[in-house]
Design a protein that fits this description.
By secondary structure, this protein is of the alpha/beta class. Helix content is 36%, strand content 26%. It has two domains: 118 residues, Rossmann fold (3-Layer(aba) Sandwich); 169 residues, Dihydrodipicolinate Reductase, domain 2. The chain is built from eleven helices and 15 strands. Strand 1, helix 1 and strand 2 form a beta-alpha-beta unit. This is Gfo/Idh/MocA family oxidoreductase.
Length: 329
């Protein structure tokens, strides 16, 4: 069975999916749409896909089985709901959106449709992350320290807080998601952000150049997260997880794991392609009708978005935000 996939959005992150899907024997990109015709043509030339004249026309194509939504988070409108209504399986890139009411509504439509659905939290599929999850099962964690530093996306929209959500919502969401996946759900978050460098380099930009969060988790652990998108001389990430009888670290977006305890001091670097593993699981779920191996569906991913949006709101309101009563759907 060959799965025909439509792709909405053909920018940088979509190119990762193009390369991954090219390695999956029973899947192919059949049609593509991007508001930039050159980007759509690039995917079409690489895959043999036809170019749709609009996202809506692509979603109305009776020949496709599934859709990848890779358009920016501010530009998705009702695409997910239309896809679910047309019985199209869908993979939606992170972050899911910028408004929880919209995301909750979309999630309800997806759930009620019964379609296979996945999201762009590809790091969960790495063997290093799975190794961490297995090791941490049943272990007591009391402290989590997270950081991610890098540089800004070149797109103008990314530098506007109301369009991207900022570095935390758009990129550091991967680290927030791994804390949820490996340790515990978030209980409370308090955030501070700054705009020192951004104001000098890009006066029209509204995103933050650095952030510092403190948080508590539902399992009783506490933690901190620091991030900056104005770090040209150091680019990297790490999640440090401390317990009374162990230390575990995930570096470089989860691709390197270190575990230290009384019996071992090991470091492993993965050779996996996270996008390939994620897309393969999505395709296999469609073929089999079994989504067991989809590690982050739309409902789960919405819980990660709740945390990052709450952090942004915490800074606006200058208070700690409780996530205990935040529910999905």
């Amino acid at each position: 069975m060959s799965i025909k996939i439509g792709m909405i959005g053909a920018g940088g992150i979509a190119q990762n999916h193009v390369k991954a899907l090219a390695r999956i024997e029973n899947a192919r990109i059949a049609t593509v749409f991007d508001i930039n015709p050159e980007q759509a043509a690039k995917v079409a030339n690489a895959t043999g896909a036809t170019i749709a004249t609009s996202a809506e026309r692509l979603l109305d194509d009776k020949e496709i089985d599934a859709v990848l939504i890779c358009s920016p988070q501010f530009a998705r409108g009702q695409l997910e709901e239309i896809a679910a209504g047309n019985n199209l399986h869908l993979l939606v890139e992170k972050p899911l959106g910028l408004n929880m009411e919209d995301v909750t509504r979309k999630g309800r439509a997806i759930r009620e449709s019964g379609v296979i659905n996945s999201t762009g939290y590809c790091l969960r599929y790495l063997d290093t992350v799975q190794m961490a999850k297995q090791y941490l099962h049943g272990k007591q964690v009391h402290l989590v320290q997270v950081h991610r530093f890098g540089t800004r996306h070149p797109a103008k929209w990314w530098n506007q807080l109301d369009l991207s959500g900022g570095f935390l919502v758009d990129a550091v969401t991967h680290q927030v998601d791994l804390v949820r996946y490996l340790v515990s759900e978030f209980n409370e978050v308090y955030a501070n952000f700054g705009r020192n460098t951004i104001l000098q380099e890009s006066p029209d930009s509204t995103i933050y150049d650095g952030g510092a969060l403190s948080f508590t988790l539902a399992n009783g652990a506490v933690g901190t997260l620091t991030e900056s998108c104005v770090s040209p001389y150091y680019n990297g990430s790490e999640i440090k997880i401390f317990g009374p009888d162990f230390y575990l670290s995930l570096r470089a977006n989860g691709t390197q794991i270190t575990i230290i305890d009384n019996d071992q001091n090991i470091t492993k670097i993965t050779k996996m392609d996270a996008y390939y593993e994620q897309d393969k699981s999505f395709v296999e779920a469609i073929v089999s009708g079994d989504s067991t191996h989809v590690l982050s569906n739309y409902e789960d991913a919405s819980k990660t978005l709740v945390v990052t949006l709450a952090a942004n709101q915490s800074f606006i309101e200058r208070k700690s935000m409780s996530l205990i009563e935040t529910t999905y759907g």
